[in-house]
Design brief:
Blueprint lengths: L1 H20 L27 H27 L46 H19 L5 H12 L13 H14 L9
Length: about 190
């Protein structure tokens, strides 16, 4: 570490000696700058930054006031009158008849006549419901006769023989089904192989 420190010190000394040997570029002599002065003759360069900013703001507001006064005096002059063209024929005049009706006063304080409520009791209809269910059960229960078997057999045989055939799908419909399965189905990583 000590050796590195000594090497660094030597390089920095050599660098300074080279920097002194280089000629410096010539610059024009600086002229003293004029100090900004307010319209009242106050020196704006003196004071701290807030005072300078305040005086600049005051100067800006005075200029703004002068501009507004000049714009206001120009605005006070009456504008030149533009001649209005005459109205067209009476045919184009709009229909001014109102579609509104006059107000009609209706009193809402009259007594409203309503029919009496009908009392509904679930037990009153329950007896009839029970009787209907008993009658339907008795009609279904009981032994079936040979005639019942024949009517059932005839009804079954009337159905077409190819009742269990599978419907054929066109190729375009199969492609569409595969696309929708890809969209709506589980991701590929979660499918069974």
């Amino acid at each position: 570490m000590v050796v590195l420190g000594i090497v660094w010190l030597l390089f920095s000394l050599l660098g300074r000696s080279r920097g002194d040997a280089r000629p410096r570029p010539r610059t024009a002599p600086q002229l003293p700058q004029s100090r900004p002065v307010s319209p009242e003759g106050r020196d704006l360069s003196g004071g701290d930054a807030t005072q300078r900013e305040g005086s600049r703001l005051e100067q800006f507001l005075r200029e703004l006031e002068r501009n507004l006064d000049s714009a206001g005096s120009a605005q006070r002059m009456p504008p030149a009158r533009v001649p209005v063209p005459p109205l067209p024929d009476d045919e184009d005049v709009e229909d001014r008849e109102s579609l509104e009706e006059p107000e009609r006063v209706v009193s809402l304080e009259t007594e409203i006549k309503r029919p009496a409520r009908v009392r509904y009791d679930q037990d009153s209809g329950a007896e009839a419901l029970v009787q209907r269910r008993i009658a339907a059960a008795e009609a279904r229960s009981g032994a079936l006769s040979k005639a019942d078997h024949r009517t059932f057999d005839a009804r079954i045989r009337e159905e077409p023989a190819d009742h269990t055939a599978v419907r054929r799908y066109p190729l375009a419909q199969l492609r569409e089904a595969i696309v929708w399965r890809e969209i709506l189905g589980p991701p590929v990583s979660e499918r069974d192989t």
